[in-house]
């Protein structure tokens, strides 16, 4: 037997560093593998290449040229995008579903694919949420919608769906966007390079056109949420919207952003990861001491630092949740979990891949014919700020509600790294670190609030994809974010 997840990560790293074609990859790329490979490749780029300019220093100037209204009615209609029923969905589905393409560039034939689920009850009064998965270059449909916070989970047969009782559309109307072009079902008819700026602009143009298709959501309270590399995507899209609000944008009533296990800082993710491993007993005091002594965690590291980092073995674990089971591939090709964790299946990526490559599913979702779906695309990424701290600070200064949260078992975007970035914001604490509780009196995690309403929270017992590991706790925290208040500080049964 072999560990399927770890095997995938090794293969993907080779793909990224050698610039091989996705079509020739032996395994399906997954979000966690792509992010790990991106971090490694960025480390090499920083060591040998020039520093990247800050393209987000003056957002108002950078994005003033973008339209704030649609000059002509965009192609496509709400009714044409309506999903009668997803193949294999459980009975008594009591909410509306839509999916389809929204063109963001007529010139280059670029269109983004979305899946939209309305709330089962009182959808007309509930807010609108856009969810973005990271990568960079991974599908919000495959991960967010079908493995995390969407209304369904794909079953092991790859053909049927089961209901997610803690789906976020219980409290909001949720769009899952496959972004940028080239990811999932989204496409471009011309070869284009991908990067942070282009991804943010295309997502903004998507929203502008989508609201023409669903005009009842114009002016509705609107939030942007995501995880992982969406630590870039979400604040950057919010920055475009907030900057353009100065020039008459009225249809997007953006209230806040909510980002989990965010990839924020090239440097601190390195230090934060090794510190996390030491804190959780994965590496010894001696190894951590050696790394601390020889590594500056800056732009260029010496040979001694590299040797110190290679002086230990992590073992066959999932670094996106170091306590979770892994997916095992048997000699006959079947997949199974290495152990049991209630509500979580580490092999779900394979089921999702089979489901979205079903012709019946693609027809029901209005996908272009002869389309091959995969969770992640091997994109050539051209621009990414070294740190997202200045962008987050700009959003807080401009009055936007900003919440970050971290599952506390993730080593790749660990809570230790995020805490360093939060510290760099240099905001005064208004509500000190304390536990927060779920309605059933469990400690859901810990939280701290800062001036300007900026909030950082942990989710206890969760890995990188928080809603996969702790669906109930993630829903409680998300609902609190939308209400603008921290979850309860005391248990209902406390004396």
UniProtKB/TrEMBL annotation:
It catalyses: Preferential release of a C-terminal arginine or lysine residue. Its EC number is 3.4.16.6. GO terms for molecular function: serine-type carboxypeptidase activity. Keywords: Carboxypeptidase, Disulfide bond, Glycoprotein, Hydrolase, Protease, Signal, Zymogen. It comes from the Eukaryota. GO terms for cellular component: vacuole. GO terms for biological process: proteolysis. The keyword Glycoprotein applies. Residues 1-25 form the signal peptide. Residues 46-66 are annotated as: Disordered. Transmembrane segments: none annotated. InterPro entries: AB_hydrolase_fold (IPR029058), Peptidase_S10 (IPR001563), Ser_caboxypep_his_AS (IPR033124). SUPFAM superfamilies: alpha/beta-Hydrolases. Carboxypeptidase II is a dimer, where each monomer is composed of two chains linked by a disulfide bond. Belongs to the peptidase S10 family. This is carboxypeptidase D.
């Amino acid at each position: 037997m072999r560990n399927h997840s770890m095997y995938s990560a090794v293969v993907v790293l080779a793909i990224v560093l050698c610039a091989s074609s996705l079509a020739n990859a032996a395994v399906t790329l997954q979000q966690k593998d792509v992010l790990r490979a991106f971090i490694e490749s960025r480390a090499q780029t920083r060591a040998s290449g020039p520093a990247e300019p800050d393209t987000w220093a003056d957002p108002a100037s950078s994005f003033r040229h973008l339209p704030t209204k649609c000059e002509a009615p965009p192609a496509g209609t709400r009714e044409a995008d309506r999903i009668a029923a997803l193949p294999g969905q459980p009975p008594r589905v009591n909410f509306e579903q839509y999916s389809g393409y929204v063109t963001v560039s007529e010139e280059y034939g670029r269109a983004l694919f979305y899946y939209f689920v309305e709330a089962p009850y009182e959808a007309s009064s509930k807010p609108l949420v856009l969810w973005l998965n990271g990568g960079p270059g991974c599908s919000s449909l495959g991960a967010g919608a079908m493995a995390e916070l969407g209304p369904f989970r794909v079953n092991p047969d790859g053909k049927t769906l089961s209901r997610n009782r803690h789906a976020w559309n219980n409290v909001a109307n949720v769009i899952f966007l496959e972004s940028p072009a080239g990811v999932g079902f989204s496409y471009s008819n011309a070869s284009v390079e991908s990067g942070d700026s282009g991804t943010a602009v295309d997502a903004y143009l998507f929203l502008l056109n989508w609201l023409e298709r669903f005009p009842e959501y114009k002016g509705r309270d609107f939030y942007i949420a995501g995880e992982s590399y969406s630590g870039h995507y979400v604040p950057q899209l919010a920055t475009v919207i907030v900057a353009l609000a100065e020039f008459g944008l009225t249809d997007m009533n953006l209230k806040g952003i909510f980002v989990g296990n965010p990839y924020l800082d090239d440097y601190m993710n390195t230090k934060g990861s090794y510190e996390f491993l030491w804190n959780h007993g994965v590496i010894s005091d001696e190894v951590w001491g050696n790394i601390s002594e020889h590594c500056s965690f800056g732009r260029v590291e010496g040979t001694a630092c590299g040797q110190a980092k290679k002086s230990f073995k992590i073992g066959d674990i999932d670094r996106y949740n170091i306590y979770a089971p892994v997916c095992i591939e048997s000699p006959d090709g079947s997949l199974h979990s290495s152990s049991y964790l209630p509500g979580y299946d580490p092999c779900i990526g394979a089921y999702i891949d089979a489901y979205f490559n079903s012709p019946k599913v693609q027809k029901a979702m209005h996908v272009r014919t002869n389309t091959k779906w995969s969770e992640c695309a091997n994109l050539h990424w051209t621009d990414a700020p070294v740190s997202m701290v200045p962008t987050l600070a700009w959003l807080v200064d401009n009055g936007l509600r900003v919440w970050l949260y971290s599952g506390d078992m993730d080593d790749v975007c660990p809570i230790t790294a995020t805490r360093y970035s939060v510290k760099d914001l240099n905001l005064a604490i208004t509500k000190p670190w304390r536990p927060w509780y779920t309605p059933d009196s469990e400690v859901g995690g810990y939280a701290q609030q800062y001036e300007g309403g900026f909030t950082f929270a942990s989710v206890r017992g969760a890995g990188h994809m928080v809603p996969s590991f702790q669906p109930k706790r993630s829903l409680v925290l998300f609902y609190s974010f939308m209400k603008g208040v921290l979850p309860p500080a005391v248990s209902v049964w406390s004396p």
